[in-house]
Design goal:
binds nicotinamide-adenine-dinucleotide; three-stranded antiparallel sheet; globular; six-stranded parallel sheet; alpha/beta; about 350 residues; 10 helices
C-alpha cells in the first residue's frame, strides 16, 4: 500500500481549490438532500455554479420549491428542479450520479455529534432506502452527523438492499481539512491556497486527527502543535457556541461539501490524480470506516492510501480514537439491525 506522502504534490494540486476551473467536462445529475437547510441552501448554490453539473435536483421535506425557484434564476447552465416529501423523492434521485446529503438536525451548544444519533439515524436510514431504490449506482456523500455512525448506517441499508458499493460511499470530512488548512496557514503565515493538511480518523472531537507533522515546510512549536490539533478537532464547537443555539457550521460546511462533491464529479468525468481525504470503508486500521487520503476515479475510490508516518503525539491520538470509531460504527450497524421500516 502506498502512503499519502507520495501524493503530497498531487494533493496540493487537486484538493480543494476554489474557483471551479473545469479541465474536463461532464454531464452529471447531482441531488442535494436536505437542500432547504442551513448547509443545503448554500451548498445547492455552490453546486449550481459547478461546470460539472448539468442537472441539479434539490430535495427536502419542507421549503424546497422556494429554494429551487431562487437558485434557478442564477445564470449558470445547470437546470434546477425542486422536490418535496416522500412522494417526490424518486423524481429527485432518479438518474443521479452524485447525491450529497446534509439532511438532519444540527447541534446546539453543549451537544456532541453523537447526541444527534437518535434523530439523524432514522433520517439517514430512510434516505438510504430511497437511494437504494432510485439511484443505487450514484456516489453518496454523507454530511449528516454523527458521520462516524451515519456512514455505517447508510452502508448497512445499501447492503440489505443488495446494492452496496464501498467505492461509492463517502463520509464527508472535508470541513476538518478546510479548517486545518486555514488554521495552519494563519499560524505558519503560509499562503492558504497552497497549504494542505492530511486529516485522518473520523469526524467528531478526538477522532479527528490532523497530521501536522506531515505539513511540508511547517515548523510548529510543541505548544502550537497541540493547540492547533485541538482547535482543528473542536473547531466545530467554536461555531456552535458563536451561533448560540441557531445551529452549527453551515457556510464553511457548504464550502467544504461543494469542494468534495466537485472532486468526485471531476474524477467521474475522467480527470486523473484526484486525491482527497474521506471517511470510507477500508482495512488500514481496525475501524471499518476510516478517513485517509483516497484516489478518486470514474467509479469512485480507486485506491486507499496509508496515512504514512506519525509523530509520537499523533500515534497516541490514533490509538486513543480507534475504540471510539469502532464503537460508533457498531452503534450504526446495530441501529439498522434493530430497525423496523
Ligand atoms: P438544518 O436543520 O439547517 O437543515 C437540515 C435540513 O434537513 C432541513 O431543511 C430539514 O428539513 C432537512 N431534512 C430533515 N429530514 C429530512 C429528510 N428525511 N429528507 C430530506 N431532508 C430532510 O441543519 P444543517 O445545519 O444544515 O445541518 C445538517 C446536518 O449536517 C446536521 O446533521 C449537522 O450536524 C451536519 N453537519 C455535518 C458537518 C460535517 O462536517 N460532516 C458539518 C456541519 C454540520
Amino acid at each position: 500500500m502506498q502512503t499519502a506522502a507520495r501524493f503530497t504534490q498531487q494533493l496540493a494540486a487537486t484538493v480543494g481549490r476554489r474557483g471551479f476551473h473545469a479541465t474536463s467536462t461532464s454531464n452529471a445529475k447531482v441531488c442535494v438532500v436536505g437542500a432547504a437547510g442551513g448547509i443545503g441552501q448554500p451548498l445547492s448554490l455552490l453546486m449550481k455554479q459547478s461546470p460539472y453539473v448539468t442537472e441539479l435536483s434539490l430535495f427536502d421535506v419542507v421549503n424546497t420549491p422556494g429554494v429551487a425557484a431562487d437558485i434557478s434564476h442564477c445564470s449558470t447552465p445547470a437546470t434546477v428542479s425542486g422536490h418535496t416529501g416522500n412522494d417526490e423523492v424518486g423524481a429527485a434521485l432518479d438518474g443521479c450520479d452524485v447525491v450529497v446529503i446534509p439532511a438532519g438536525v444540527p447541534r446546539k451548544p453543549g451537544m456532541t455529534r453523537d447526541d444527534l444519533f437518535n434523530t439523524n439515524a432514522s433520517i439517514v436510514a430512510g434516505l438510504a432506502d430511497a437511494c437504494a431504490k432510485h439511484c443505487p449506482d450514484a456516489a453518496f456523500c454523507i454530511i449528516s452527523n454523527p458521520v462516524n455512525s451515519t456512514v455505517p448506517i447508510f452502508a448497512e441499508v445499501l447492503k440489505n438492499a443488495g446494492v452496496y458499493n464501498p467505492k461509492k460511499l463517502f463520509g464527508v470530512t472535508t470541513l476538518d481539512v478546510v479548517r486545518a488548512r486555514t488554521f495552519v496557514a494563519e499560524n505558519q503565515k503560509f499562503d492558504v491556497d497552497t497549504v494542505d493538511v492530511t486529516v485522518i480518523g473520523g469526524h467528531a472531537g478526538t477522532t479527528i486527527l490532523p497530521l501536522l507533522s506531515q505539513v511540508e515546510g511547517a515548523n510548529f512549536s510543541e505548544e502550537d502543535f497541540k493547540a492547533l490539533t485541538h482547535r482543528i478537532q473542536f473547531g466545530g464547537d467554536e461555531v456552535v457556541q458563536a451561533k448560540d443555539g441557531a445551529g452549527s457550521a453551515t457556510l464553511s460546511m457548504a464550502f467544504a461539501g461543494a469542494e468534495f462533491a466537485e472532486l468526485v464529479l471531476r474524477a467521474q468525468a475522467g480527470e486523473e490524480g484526484i486525491v482527497a481525504c474521506s471517511f470510507v470503508e477500508n482495512d488500514i486500521t481496525q475501524a471499518p470506516f476510516f478517513s485517509t487520503p483516497v484516489l478518486l476515479g470514474e467509479n469512485g475510490v480507486e485506491e486507499v492510501f496509508h496515512y504514512g508516518d506519525l509523530s509520537p503525539f499523533e500515534e497516541e491520538g490514533l490509538l486513543a480514537m480507534l475504540p471510539d470509531l469502532v464503537a460508533q460504527a457498531e452503534k450504526g450497524v446495530d441501529f439498522v439491525k434493530n430497525r423496523s421500516k
